[in-house]
Amino acid sequence: MRRPELSVIIPVFNEENRVDRGLSKVLEYLERQPFSWELLVVDDGSSDQTVSAVQKILKVRKNMMLIENPHLGKGGAIKKGILSSTGQWVIFLDVDLATPIEELGKFMRLRKGFDILIGSRKMKGAKILIHQPRFREFGGKVFTLLTNILVTRGISDITCGFKLYRTELAQKLFRQSLLMDWSFDAEILFLAQKGRARIREVPVVWQDNPNTKVSLLKDTLTSFIGLVRIRFNDLLGKYHLP
């Protein structure tokens, strides 16, 4: 079969209440596009009816695949999707569509000459429809600051869940990744900058979802530990980029 131009990866974990709505919106958008595509839904070991809900959609939709993964964390689910993708480009996004799928058109237009396009909620031109609570926004700013001190350079939004990669590069980077939790983004971008990838940040439309599964205290602490681990892994020579 002809290689699709784009692979779309959506990780899900216990999303029975919103997976149908999110996937339907994504599919309706993709089916109107001129480029070829595939949609990979990666279940991260859900314990509710998420898998059943996705299987129902599979029966009536084309170009879509469900990958069932053991529970490893968001990074682990995305890694599985990246390594399973066949498109020339690959994007991952969240099923709650905090960044609307319509932003994909902007990314596809701007990709020429770059290896990675990162959605940013924090640069000029971004539009926040619904803000996070202030304490959560502050926590995000602190994490971004720490990330740019410890592992990356000059990236305004590390954790926005809307990123487009050249597939060959993405697969090289994710094969090297060791972190499966929320700090996976920082690790991948560290490796990308280490390998001199051409990265562009793109302002996006975004809105907070009050039903987010992110625990501010727990996940902030875990992510900070992850930043330290990235540095130690690098010092110990555990990353082997070609």
Write structural notes for this entry.
With 242 residues, the chain is of the alpha/beta class. It has one domain: Spore Coat Polysaccharide Biosynthesis Protein SpsA, Chain A, CATH 3.90.550.10. It is 40% helix and 20% strand. It has 8 helices and 9 strands. The strands form 2 sheets. The protein has a 7-stranded mixed β-sheet, sandwiched between helices. Strands 6-9 form a two-stranded parallel sheet. Strand 2, helix 2 and strand 3 form a beta-alpha-beta unit. The longest helix is centred in the C-terminal third of the chain and has 20 residues. Belongs to the glycosyltransferase 2 family. GO terms for molecular function: dolichyl-phosphate beta-glucosyltransferase activity.
**How many whole angstroms does the radius of gyration measure?**
17 Å
Shape-level CATH architecture = Alpha-Beta Complex
Total number of β-strand segments? Answer: 9
User: How far apart, in Å, are the first and last alpha carbons?
Assistant: 29 Å
Q: Give a short account of the largest sheet.
A: 7 strands, mixed
User: Percent helix among the residues?
Assistant: 40-55%
**How many structural domains does the protein architecture include?**
1
| CATH homologous superfamily identity | Spore Coat Polysaccharide Biosynthesis Protein SpsA, Chain A
Principal-axis shape equals: globular
Name of the CATH class: Alpha Beta
The CATH topology: Spore Coat Polysaccharide Biosynthesis Protein SpsA, Chain A
